[in-house]
Design a protein that fits this description.
This protein is of the alpha+beta class and 423 residues long. It contains 12 helices and 22 strands. The protein folds into 4 domains: 89 residues, 3-Layer(aba) Sandwich (Rossmann fold); 68 residues, Dna Ligase, domain 1 (2-Layer Sandwich); 128 residues, D-amino Acid Aminotransferase, Chain A, domain 1; 96 residues, Phosphoribosylglycinamide synthetase, C-terminal domain (Glycinamide Ribonucleotide Synthetase, Chain A, domain 4). Helix content is 28%, strand content 28%.
């Protein structure tokens, strides 16, 4: 088979690496890709939002199967565009990707079908939102309705913070049109866990659990980012929690989408919070998480193409998902100053230290090739991943491996997965 992966970040590098292990695949293409993906795939500099060009490229290269990585093209209907052209593609159609593309839609869906989540209200007007905040209790959570690169969530501890948040999202348009409408919801306390699931519209199969670290600085301080690191599995995601979520969250979500005429085929990412009142859904995503994919896919035993084709063909019930009985930790190496101001174009050294090292992975997130070598090309630059017998060992191995690669203004959190060592 010839396979095309759409995207160019760490998640897509992890997907490409999994596709490269498939016995069914002999040629991989990626658009736009990055300097790391180029070692495994033929890359073409087409933007993820240039649907016509991507479809034409897939036809020109006689691609058999396309995998969509990021959220923006899914929300804008890239799967529909590929299907219209008669191409096999993995990912939810636009009418199903709305589960991530609109927070208001997903909250209304949960309310309608009694899927456990936080109480909320939706607002199209900043004035109405501010009136609501006058009588709210704090802390409180503000979310942009639309996609905001994983950063459109504000946790506000005071009324003043919340008022400023509404101004920032709705009036100053910090995230553009994503903030035209906002969701204000109750603040829940508990451990957060991410569970990613394969779906074929009727059957849903859960992968191993993971946990992201969104804040830029140690101790969960600083601004929200796209994710500074992850670990898998979560020790807090017990068999009891899994049984509850299968009964009251995962299958009910897929059934609800089907009833709404929005068959969900692809990856459903469920962001959970384990409260005193039981697990509740914080959010849904319609694709692999980034950097969750980087710790989940290396632990998956199945051929990724077998699983994805079963999803597209409505035969997921025939697949038995299997994961290694171990752990993985991912530490993001970022450009200092991310997620605000940072410099690009810094030469990266030490790639050779990862060659032939079993159980270690270096997934490129924002890199490009130049005359001077491979350089930094964004905020989150590299993902250092290591596997271990347990989370403690995987964490130690991952942090040791962060020393193997370097670039000027390299920055990382030093406490990814630290809390798990106390469990």
């Amino acid at each position: 088979m010839k396979v095309l992966v759409v995207g160019g970040g760490g998640r897509e590098h992890a997907i490409v690496a999994s596709v490269a292990k498939s016995k069914k695949v002999d040629k991989i293409y990626c658009a736009p890709g990055n300097a790391g993906i180029e070692a495994l795939a033929e890359c073409e500099p087409i933007s993820v939002m240039e649907f016509d060009k991507l479809v034409a490229y897939a036809k020109e290269k006689e691609v058999d199967f396309t995998i969509i990585g990021p959220d923006d093209p899914l929300g804008a209907g890239i799967v529909d565009a590929f299907e219209k052209a008669g191409l096999r593609v993995f990912g939810p159609r636009q009418n199903a990707a709305i589960i991530e593309a609109s927070k208001a839609f997903s909250k209304d869906l949960m309310k309608k079908y009694n899927i456990p989540t936080a109480a909320y209200e939706t607002f199209d007007s900043a004035e109405d939102a501010m009136k609501y905040l006058e009588q709210s209790s704090y802390p409180i959570v503000l979310k942009t309705d639309g996609l905001a690169l994983g950063k459109g969530v504000l946790i506000c501890n005071t009324k003043e913070e919340a008022m400023d948040g509404v101004k920032s999202l709705m009036l100053d348009k910090q995230f553009g049109s994503a903030g035209d409408r906002i969701v204000i919801e109750e603040f829940l306390t508990g451990r957060e866990v991410s569970v990613l699931c394969y779906c074929d519209g009727k059957t849903i199969k859960t992968m191993t659990s993971a946990q992201d670290h969104k804040r830029a600085k140690d101790g969960d301080q600083g601004l929200n980012t796209g994710g500074m690191g992850t670990f898998s599995p979560s020790p807090f995601y017990t068999d009891e929690v899994d049984a509850f979520c299968k009964k009251y969250v995962y299958q009910p979500t897929i059934d609800a989408m089907k009833k709404e005429g929005r068959d969900f085929i692809g990856i459903l990412f469920v962001g959970l919070i384990l409260t005193e009142d039981g697990p509740k859904v914080l959010e849904y995503n319609a694709r692999f998480g980034d950097p969750e994919a980087q710790v989940i896919l290396p632990r998956m035993k199945n051929d990724i193409i077998d699983v994805m084709e079963a999803c597209v063909d409505g035969k997921l019930d025939s697949i038995n998902l299997e994961f290694e009985d171990n752990a993985a930790v991912c530490v993001v190496l970022a450009s200092d100053g991310y997620p605000q101001q940072y410099e690009k174009g810094k030469v990266i050294t030490g790639f050779e230290n990862f060659e032939g090292k079993d159980g270690y992975y270096l997934f490129h997130a924002a890199t490009k090739k130049t005359q001077d070598g491979i350089v930094t090309n964004g905020g989150r630059v590299l993902n250092v991943v290591a596997k271990g017998e347990d989370l403690k060992q995987a964490r130690a191995e991952a942090y040791e491996a962060t020393k193997w690669v370097g670039f000027a203004n390299k920055y990382m959190r030093n406490d990814i997965g630290k809390a798990i060592e106390e469990v």
